[in-house]
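Aim 2 progress update. The chain analyzed this quarter is reproduced below.
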Amino acid sequence: MWEYMNAFLGSSEYGELILKFPNVKYAVSGHVHYRKRKVMKGIEFICNCLGYRSEWHENGDVDVEVDRAMMMIEI
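Predicted structure tokens:
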């Protein structure tokens, strides 16, 4: 369903560029409607989108989903 739109969600070149700078600790992106976090070479890549209600966990509770999507980054 999203195959066409995925072409506009970013590029692997962004990841390659970020990895070239050792002082970068976090790379934050969004607007893809799913949450994912990954650490590569000491850099945390974060996509903490809230998403659509239909994509939430089984209970669909907005307070629970906001808590799951929220994170604090200390700089």
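The mean pLDDT is 81. The first strand starts at residue 26 and ends at 29. These observations will guide the mutagenesis experiments scheduled for the next reporting period.
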